[in-house]
Hints:
By secondary structure, this protein is an alpha/beta fold. The protein has 14 helices and 13 strands.
Amino acid sequence: MAPQRSSSAAAGKVVDLSLNIPGPSLLPKVLAESSSTFPTADISDYVGYLSHSGISEHRAQLANLFREAGFEANPDNLVITNGAQHGIALTLSSICQPGDKVFVEAATYHGMKSYAHFAKLELVGLPMDGEGLLPGAFDKAAAAGTARVLFAIPTIQSPTARIMSATRRREIVRIARKRDIVIIEDDAYGFLHQASEPLASLAPERTFYVNTLSKCLAPGLRIGMLVVPEQYLTQIHQAMRATCWMASPISSFIVSEWIRSGTAAGVKQSLVQEAKKRVKLASQILRPYIRSDHPASFHLWLDLPSEVAQQVAARSLQRGVITTPPSALLVEPSLISGLRISIGVPENIEDLEWALRQVAAALEVGNEANMSII
């Protein structure tokens, strides 16, 4: 017999916990209050074909964001991109050929899987523990010459929300240097946990640092940042010219104005506080199924056997809650399984609470079924 739908689900209520984006922010209000203050004369300077890397003043402002978090990025090595996905694509197209293998965590960012499939790259999933990528497994695979590139998300890893310790980061960098591995670091969620030093700060000579304003300001801006090791700048500029010439100068102008005025910092802080509130709520409702590695995150990971994760996703959908298909985020299913819960999409906390309770009910049904088998 199929699990009964909740009355709310039966009435047509649907809540999306599949998209990994921030929750409500101050952005609509910010747009209304600040867009009219932008000097039109300045905006008119940014409607033509401009530098592949982006306007130098804008790159300097974006570098300031990293400096506030303790990462000294040279603006001359920073390329403004059309979001993080574009930065990842630029990097991989510049350093890889079709058929190449790339190391990733056993579960990884879906956009990385998507691009690898498109570019005919083979992803090699490596084992993880509570801190993310395991150094020993990385060293063994690198020593065997399996791949020459590592894509990693050391801070609030997507999808597992795990965070590498400072010691782990230094060990990963040591191995990368020893085995001559190029690193691509995705730091999209770094603004939620600025206590960790990026891999790019530890090994700037071999690390492509990818960041974005999609998570901390707004996806529609399509502004990302790629910090490039000096020796690869020419290749990245060629890739920019071949793919889109430049990121939108008008979008980067808006962003630089928000950084200069302090607006961006205010929006980011509001999102951090919102994330803390939502993690606390999710931890209360889904205990003991989740472990929160950090009090501020917009996604959480349920460690579940593969079959159970699929069943919980299906039961949640019957109850009106959309989650990400478990297989969408797995590279090596034999090493990890589970279900990601994205808690940022619901516009209000009441809808989030309702959705989390539906997931909890789906988990309990699965637990009861397993007990009956025993």
